Amino acid sequence: MSDADTDPPTDAVPRRPGHPAPLAPGETVVLIDRKERRYLVALRTGGQFGYHGGTLDHDALIGQTEGVQVSASKGARLLALRPTADDWTLKAPRGAQVVYPKDQAMIVARGDIGPGCQVVEAGAGSGALTAALLRAVVPGGTVTSFERREDFADVARRNVASRLGEVGETWDLRVEDAAGRLGDLVCDRVVLDLLEPWDLVAEAASALRPGGLLVAYTPTVPQVMRLQEELDAAQTFARSETSETLERTWNVRGLSVRPDHRMVAHTAFLTVARRVPPRS
Ligand SMILES: C[S@@+](CC[C@H](N)C(=O)[O-])C[C@H]1O[C@@H](n2cnc3c(N)ncnc32)[C@H](O)[C@@H]1O
């Protein structure tokens, strides 16, 4: 049996960045090299991290203060921190394409998703957005996620567990097609991140309480158009608005203060609409 099997988890809830305790076995850290490359590593006693810069014993990190700098076997320096949501989203294992942090933030903000909300999500994919939704709805809220692919649902389950720990009854992951099921639920937010969200508009209308919000995340213009046609035809949605979020990072080094040369120019469009009683 390896140490990884015998080391107990250090906490029921993974420690957030800034936690005062030293780094411990069972925790995940992000290692960042000189070129800003990031590596997620789950610490275990006697474990070893290997990459192109050589190897690093986990024991060199265990017991250290977050923010420690250590040297790998070939001399490269690595900064060790507890991962933020950004680190998790970009570096965690993925099955399906994930929703980027800038869009997670907008989905939570534009969807007015907060403590106590009852959210239904389809599809869960790699669980990146799910984790953001789960964090937003506590205390008192729930997230019900549909994912029709068992392999993706497994990735989502593992990612949510390693990122948030035991979420208990706050999360209900249903490994099945949302079609034919979503409409039986009752909720105040529906979040759709799948190829053909228009197929679920009628069921979203039936699940949502009046005043509730539908949030759909669609990468292409034809998807936005098709979705809007369906929202209009349903006559049970109002105040539909579509936006996209562009995030441009900057290089700030001495006198070289300018936008970075590269950016993620486009991810997806966000359409938000309010559920209203049918127009008479
Ligand atoms: C783009 S991914 C979602 C990524 C996810 N939001 C994340 O941040 O990790 C779309 C997912 O929807 C799932 N899916 C597509 N249609 C579905 C349906 N009708 N019911 C349930 N899941 C569906 C796919 O299997 C895929 O995993």
Number of helices: 7
Tell me the total number of β-strands. 15
CATH topology of the largest domain: Rossmann fold
SSE class: alpha/beta
Q: Give the second-level CATH assignment, the architecture of the largest domain.
A: 3-Layer(aba) Sandwich
Distance between the termini: 68 Å
Shape: globular
Integer-rounded radius of gyration: 21 Å
Specify the helix fraction band: 10-25%
Oligomer: single chain
Uncertain segments are 1-10
Would you list the SSEs in sequence order as H and E? HEEEEEEHHEHEHEEHEHEEEE
| Largest sheet geometry | 7 strands, mixed
- Proportion in β-strands: 25-35%
Spatial arrangement of strands, main beta sheet? 9-8-7-10-11-15-12
In this entry the ligands are:
S-adenosylmethionine
The level-1 CATH class of the largest domain: Alpha Beta
Polypeptide structure, described:
The chain is α/β, with parallel strands linked by helices and 280 residues long. It folds into 2 domains: 3-83, Vcp-like ATPase, Chain A, domain 2, CATH 3.10.330.20; 87-275, Rossmann fold, CATH 3.40.50.150. Helices cover 24% and strands 28% of the residues. It is built from 7 helices and 15 strands. It has helices spanning 3-6, 85-91, 101-110, 128-137, 150-164, 201-207, 221-234; strands at 28-32, 38-42, 48-51, 54-57, 69-71, 77-81, 118-122, 142-146, 171-174, 187-192, 208-218, 237-243, 250-253, 256-259, 269-275. The strands form 4 sheets. It has a 7-stranded mixed beta sheet, with helices on both faces. Residues 1-10 have low confidence and may be disordered. The structure holds S-adenosylmethionine (SAM). Residues 96-99, 122-123, 125-129, 146-149, 152, 177-179, 193-195 line the site of S-adenosylmethionine.
